[in-house]
Amino acid sequence: MEALVERLELAVVRLEAVAVKLQNGPGGVVNGDIIHSLMINGGDSQSMEAFDLLLSGSVSEYVKTSTAIGGDVAKHAEMVNNALQIQRSFLKMAMTHREPSKTELVDLLRPLSEQIHEVQSFREKNRGSRLFNHLSAVSESIPALGWVAVCQKPGPYVKEMNDAAMFYTNRVLKDYKDTDGRHVEWVRSYLSIWTELQTYIREHHTTGLIWSKTGPIAPSSLLSAPSDGRCPPPPPPPPPPVFMDSPNPEDGTAQISALFAQLNQGEAITKGLKHVSDEQKSQKKAHLRKHQESPARRPDPSVCPPARKHAPVLELEGKKWRVEHQDQSHDLLIEETELRQVVYVFGCSSSTLQIKGKVNSIIVDNCRKLGLVFDSAVGIAEVINCRDVQLQVMGKVPTISINKTEGCHVYLSKDSLDCEIVSAKSSEMNILVPEGEDDYREFPVPEQFKTVWDGSSLLTEPTKIAG
Predict the structure, then answer these.
(1) Do domains 21-219 and 313-462 have the same CATH topology?
(2) Could you report the per-residue pLDDT of 398-407, keeping only the tens digit for each?
(3) Helix, strand, coil proportions of the chain in percent (round to 5)?
(4) What whole-number distance in Å separates Cα of residue 154 and Cα of residue 156?
(5) Which of 13, 66, 239, 261 sits between 20 and 30 A of 110, alpha carbons compared?
(6) Contact 350, 332 (CB under 8 A)
């Protein structure tokens, strides 16, 4: 009964506020307009209250647990919170303004797009972080805030981003579920943000963001213009792909860039093209061909400099061994290691690395034709975005992860036969098991699977390619 009374009192307050607003408006309104206005204002108020409840609930809990963990996770959480606050301002603006043109909508969404870019760039700048799985979960799912630009049923889009985060949150749970409950709570609070956002969209913006029908058209400078009245600067270009020659690059940056780029295209995508007549075509003019073939027309190397070659690195930085941009180096050696140290191998090609002793974990990232021999790791040995790499375990390792990789041979020792091998989006993987003294038996890792419905659940099993 008390809850019912409280709701009635709240409704009375809303009615009185709307009545005052209508009385002060020019010309007044008739009964039908009053009812329509009450419905619009009441719906908007409920929409903002629901979003504020999301911010004060799951988002606040996520920031709190991130602060408890500290480090890169805490910094990342502040960026995510800022992005959600920007989205709140955008939603509040949509309550009182009519939908602008697609070009102006891009300007309105620019602050949100830039904040999403900042969240994802933070992950790329900290690839060697011991909390990299936390950063990846956030970076892969933060494009969900782009739901405001999805015209029809944005809820499923948010769910896709939530599913992308779960690939990495499962890793977090595996690493910490038995050692540190803060990380388990972090996973729960973070995933609940997107779950509750789906509920919010389903209740208030089922078929897309709802704009005001009676207010002024939203000005493009409402959110993005500086306070001094100057025009906002152009948005920064998207970051280059982390793995330039990856066969199937998939990252959150590409997704959000494509999402916002579509807003400015539509049917007008070809209107900027200029017709070129036959007389204007250079191949029709012999003197132009001759001029183009002249040595004086060759590009100046100073204008288009060659790509900068990174200096090779092999050094201990704090608790992290960095092995980067090594090429044709077959005598790389890391020794005097400690349990707390992490080895991060990045951008190496046609090289061989040996790691002596026991380390915490090993990450091989964006390497080509690399041979890695290591004694033992207490955590995970991970291969990501690589091609034609070979790993040999001399001691023991609990988990080997292969992700987005073409061609990976893993040589196990007798002590490491019980390790778990997790693979995703990879091909040409082979596990070699010791047989006898100096011989190995090779087993391919399945790449094709068959899934059937048994009446109550899905059953998946590996299958061989037919023919």
Answers:
(1) no
(2) 999 999 999 9
(3) 45, 20, 30
(4) 6
(5) 66
(6) no
